[in-house]
Amino acid sequence: MNEANNALDNLLQPPLVIVQFLQKLGVTFSVRRKTGNLPAAQCVQAVMLEDAVGPLLVLFSQDQLLDLSRLADLTGRKLVTVTAERQQRMLGKHGLDQLPALPPLLNSPCLYDDRLLKAPSVFIESGQSGVLLEISRADLQVLLSKSSAALLGEPLKNIKLNLDRPDDDRSEITHAVQAFTARRIQQRLEETIEIPPLPESAQKIIKLRVDPNATIDDITGVVETDPALAAQVISWAASPYYAAPGKIRSVEDAIVRVLGFDLVINLALGLALGKTLSPPKDQPQQSTPYWHQALYTAAVIEGLTRSMPRAERPEAGLTYLAGLLHNFGYLVLAYVFPPHLSLICRHIEANPHLTHNYIEHHLLGISSDQIGAWLMRSWDMPEELANALRFQNDPEYNEVNAAYPRLVNLAVHLLRNRGIGSGPCSEIPQSLLDSLQINRDKAEAVVSEVLAAEVALRELASLIHPTH
After folding, report:
1. Are residues 50 and 184 in the same domain?
2. 221-224: long-range contacts at Cβ-Cβ below 8 A with a sequence spacing of 24 or more?
């Protein structure tokens, strides 16, 4: 296997401009494929920041989080990540599609974390997707000879993620609220975080979800009492995504002919919850609009659930709802900590190698997964749904109904690797696929099928939140 990998490595070619540039400097390098098993402490993360003074290239290892507040204290500058368009223009001058950790090439001032020089060698982006360059410590010193050093990053080992201690969620959320309000709050959590009450239509839908005797007439009656919800359900059924023959004339027609009881129940519930909290206007650059990502994830999970052996499948309607609401904690986080949302967004931009939960834990002491699951429980939503949100980033979660968070985890990873959502691309663990008994090729085919209907899905998203 190693011989095969080495043969593939020999076929990789970095951009000619990079090769010629390094040869001119007398820097030697080895070409490596970009894989997920390289030591993070030796992988260099390059981020281009700027302010009114100008650009600044910042380099640190991928086992660290770049803390923008610490950077501001060091430099006296309030730096933010350059826009994607500006970075593309900068790279386009050299015919590159990735930002390389080469300050002389970019002709930019550079600040680097001096712990980079502790490793015997490092891996840097070559400018070509999927191709890395391994450079020795001595040659890295040559590249950084005109750059400045400092302790920039927060080691990820110091950020204690709470992936598997749900009993601590209440105390951690309360602690975070206390820390950001700068006063001791003695009230119960439900009074401290003034979340809007569950909409009346959602309360009725939840009762129908758990009623084994509920009929199509029952759900039709609930939907029709909310004119906006009724219009959306009819529009969903009539959308190109479902390609229904003939004209959809009523809510009952939409349910019977196109959507079905379970899908309408969960769509209606998702739409009702979506009205309680609106997506914030401030979002990380290049992030997928909130409801677009929600619908992509729900649609992928729907297909993944069908791909599982029939005897092992969890409740299809509930897995769809888990996909629709998987990132609902982000809306709650924006509602509870509005002044700090911008700080979270800027750190997500500056740390593209990390998932959101590291950044949220570092800045707030909690994650959106925790707070989203707490809200689901406070609204008496199904426990499977709360667990899907709470444990979606815990690869070791193995309790009852573990399929729900695993499906969310798989769907989010698959979409992220296709450029939907935020966070680093990564290889799907075979153990995750095996636990769900889903073939890797089948999982990829599900995503391809969903993305083929991208335009129609965007139209559906606009029905939930027209401005997103």
Report:
1. no
2. 222/268, 223/251, 223/264, 223/268, 224/251
